[in-house]
Predict the 3D structure of the following.
Amino acid sequence: MLPEGMRKADLPTVKRGGKQARILSDDKVKVLLNNPEVWYEIATVPNWVSGVVANIQNGTQSNIRHLSNKGVFQVRQRKNKDTSQITVYCRFVRKDNINDE
């Protein structure tokens, strides 16, 4: 018998706050972590995304913040001359390999 005001209940799901990562999503992070040192095309966008790139490289993006002691994400942007779109490339470099470059 439970005390008054107490009952068994399922924990409600929590909505993730703020804007969700689009360019470097959780699925893409998993691929990059499983294949370090390999460049991947992660997005094609109409405009330069320097703020997003800075957040990824500094490790301040919420879905990669906890990985800052493991290594860094390197990001490059290149303009496609045929489509005028910006292609964003990324790779993960482990901390023990950073000084090798």
User: Anything to note?
Assistant: The longest strand covers residues 71-79. The two ends are 65 Å apart (CA to CA).
